[in-house]
Design goal:
The chain has 214 residues and is α/β, with parallel strands linked by helices. The protein has a 6-stranded mixed beta sheet, sandwiched between helices. A two-stranded antiparallel sheet has the order 1-2. It is globular and about 65 Å long. The protein has helices at 31-44, 102-109, 131-134, 144-153, 163-169, 174-185, 192-201, 206-213, and strands at 3-6, 13-16, 19-25, 49-54, 64-70, 96-99, 120-124, 157-161.
Length: 214
């Protein structure tokens, strides 16, 4: 959705569109926690935001995706109006895709959602093998270079890092590492301190989450 907003700093109107982020995570990796963190950060920083989710078939046969949208204008500038966000991602409109596993990144890249003109793609280089890969008599692993090449082909810019290794080294879930990668990418319109405060207020496991975030 595009919403006309009049800036307090200027007399003319400008068209604003939401910041759209798609999170791809396997079961048990904390993708829902990450989506909640993003919403809390946006609200704390004074922005309108929403997150929805689409569950996968199972933990490994399909990732659960979480869709986050935020209007990059302070609520104080909206003069009582409220944006209407989408319930699901729209092909070609994603600003960021972040994924906890390389094959899931390639799956997302192949379904037409990311845009090479618009999308920053942040992917883990780590793999969680499918049942088909595990069931081969020899080395049944999919070629990682091919998967990464597919991700690159649909990205305006891309970053790949071993999120699983970082999470393991810090005794936390991969969602904390994904949050840190998002904060470090420059895609979020709020300060790092807001992210840290939201993690700290979560309570249990906060210190390990912060270690993974950093």
């Amino acid at each position: 959705m595009t919403m006309p907003i009049t800036s307090n700093a200027a007399s003319d109107s400008r068209q604003l569109r939401p910041l759209s982020i798609l999170i791809c995570a396997l079961g048990g990796e904390g993708g829902g926690v990450l989506a909640d963190w993003l919403v809390e950060c946006a609200l704390q920083a004074g922005f309108a935001a929403q997150a929805t989710s689409i569950p996968g078939v199972a933990q490994r046969t399909g990732a659960t995706t979480y869709f986050f949208e935020m209007l990059p204008a302070p609520m104080t500038e909206l003069r009582g109006r409220r944006p209407v966000f989408s319930l699901h991602p729209i092909p070609g409109t994603l600003d960021v895709v972040i994924s906890s596993e390389l094959l899931e990144s390639a799956r997302c890249a192949s379904n037409g959602l990311p845009s090479p003109e618009r999308t920053l793609f942040i992917t883990s280089s780590s793999r969680t093998l499918t049942n088909n890969e595990r069931g081969q008599l020899g080395d049944g692993r999919l070629n990682e270079a091919t998967l990464l090449s597919l991700v690159q082909s649909v990205s305006r810019a891309h970053h790949a890092l071993d999120m699983q290794r970082i999470a393991h080294e810090n005794g936390t879930e991969v969602s904390a590492v994904m949050f840190g990668a998002l904060a470090g990418s420059g895609a979020l319109p709020f300060e790092k301190a807001v992210c840290i405060d939201v993690i700290r207020r979560a309570g249990r496991g906060a210190e390990r989450s912060l270690a993974g975030f950093e």
